[in-house]
Specification:
Layout lengths: L3 H17 L26 E2 L5 E2 L2 H4 L3 H20 L5 H10 L12 H21 L7 H4 L18
Antiparallel strand pairs: 1-2
Helix pairs in contact: 3-5
C-alpha cells in the first residue's frame, strides 16, 4: 500500500500535465468572466426562536404557494418516516453528545426528538405562510397522525378533509 502512493502521484501528475498540454497558451478565464459568480446567495435570517417557533429565512419567505406546498408535502412524508425509525438508546445519545465537541459537524441526529420538534415547527411556519398568501393549507395534525398513509394534500380554507 505504501508503494502505491508515489505511483498514484506520478499518474495524477501525468494526467494534469497531459491536460495542460492540450492547447498551448491556454489559461482559464478570470473570475470577472465567471457567469456563475454570485449565483448562489446563502439564505439569511430564519431558524428556531427562543420560544420554540420557527421563523422563515429570506429565501423561504419569497417562495410561491406551489413550492411551499411541495416542501410541506415532503416534510410530512419525512416526519412520518421518522416516527417509524429505530430510536437510539440513552447510552448512544450520551456518547454522541459527549463526542460532538470533539468531532466537528452537524448536531443533527443527536436528539431525534429535538430534530422532530424543529421539523414540525418549520412545517407550521410554512403552513402559516400559505395562510398569509391565501393558499390551500395542510391539516398537519391529521397528516401526522400515526398510521396515516394517505398522500399528503392541502385543503382549501373552510373545507374539512
Amino acid at each position: 500500500m505504501a508503494g502505491s502512493n508515489p505511483l498514484l502521484a506520478l499518474v495524477v501528475a501525468a494526467a494534469v500535465a497531459g491536460c495542460a498540454a492540450v492547447e498551448p497558451g491556454f489559461s482559464p478565464p478570470s473570475l470577472k468572466h465567471n457567469r456563475f459568480k454570485g449565483a448562489f446567495v446563502p439564505p439569511t435570517g430564519g431558524g428556531m426562536t427562543s420560544d420554540g417557533r420557527y421563523s422563515l429565512n429570506d429565501h423561504e419567505a419569497k417562495l410561491d404557494c406551489k413550492k411551499i406546498n411541495a416542501i410541506i408535502h415532503v416534510g410530512i412524508l419525512q416526519m412520518r418516516e421518522a416516527g417509524e425509525r429505530h430510536r437510539p438508546s440513552v447510552a448512544a445519545k450520551a456518547a454522541r453528545a459527549a463526542l460532538s465537541p470533539v468531532a466537528t459537524g452537524s448536531s443533527h441526529g443527536i436528539d431525534p426528538d429535538a430534530d422532530n420538534a424543529r421539523a414540525l415547527a418549520r412545517l407550521q411556519a410554512l403552513n402559516a405562510r400559505l395562510a398569509e398568501k391565501k393558499c390551500a393549507l395542510y391539516d398537519l395534525d391529521s397528516e401526522l397522525k400515526p398510521g396515516n398513509s394517505e398522500s399528503p394534500a392541502p385543503v382549501k380554507p373552510g373545507r374539512a378533509k
